[in-house]
Amino acid sequence: SQQGEEDPQALSIQEGENATMNCSYKTSINNLQWYRQNSGRGLVHLILIRSNEREKHSGRLRVTLDTSKKSSSLLITASRAADTASYFCATDARNTGFQKLVFGTGTRLLVSP
Amino acid sequence: ETGVTQSPTHLIKTRGQQVTLRCSSQSGHNTVSWYQQALGQGPQFIFQYYREEENGRGNFPPRFSGLQFPNYSSELNVNALELDDSALYLCASSAGQVLYKEQFFGPGTRLTVL
Questions:
Q1: How confident is the model over A26-51, as pLDDT tens digits?
Q2: Closest approach of B40 to chain A, Cα-based (Å)
């Protein structure tokens, strides 16, 4: 079963615009990670935010984490056509005894030139 | 690209058959996890191997089994294939059981069961 859900399920924007995706999860976590997937291929790790962090930046990416609301957001600024992909959040749940990633359902982002 | 490789890239099998998928982990990584991703869904955790032992399993039946070798490469075996086993199978490697470490994913094997 999926841990959480991304919102929206699909997002269509123009190049240069910002894209915001949200993720909600259900259980306490050690960390939350965001991954990108192009056309049903392997997942590319984008950013990891620990449960005691509230915001993290990496290049054009900004991730926030609100553990009280069990939610996270990924902001991609100044989007490019190459950002077209599916984006997944994944949580690393506490107290599992091993590192198991639980993925959400994903947001499909389309960036048009 | 990560240093994780998977083979084969694509595979077509018929219901009832058995399949073996292979994964080579990134250099220096001793932990391999396997995930199943059905079309339009997020990946689901199958199991994880750490230093040749299975140390965690998701909600998959026993006909899904695996191995990890001394060089930390891994195999996923699925017996008695069912139509619903059609999916992209992803392996991921990481450097041990340390928290706050990302998992590096391979390109996946797409399995079609007819």
A1: 888 888 999 999 987 889 999 999 99
A2: 8
CA A27 vs CA A19, A59, B38, B100: distances in Å: 26, 29, 23, 17
Residue A105 to residues A2, A9, A90, B21, Cα–Cα distance (Å): 7, 8, 10, 24
Q: Which of B61, B92, B57 is nearest to B78 (CA)?
A: B61
**Binary contact (A1, B59; C-beta < 8 A):** yes
Residues of B in contact with A65 (CB under 8 A): none
For residue A24, what pLDDT is reported? 94
- Contact criterion met (CB < 8 Å) for A41 and B100: no
Q: What is the spatial distance between Cα B52 and Cα B32, in angstroms, rounded to a whole number?
A: 9
Phi, psi of A82 (to 5 degrees): -70, -10
Spell out a b/e string for B51-80, using b for 16 or more CB atoms within 10 Å of the CB, else e. eeeeebebebeeebbbebeeebbbbbebee
**Testing the interface with A: which of B49, B99, B104 to mutate, by most A Cβ within 10 A?**
B99
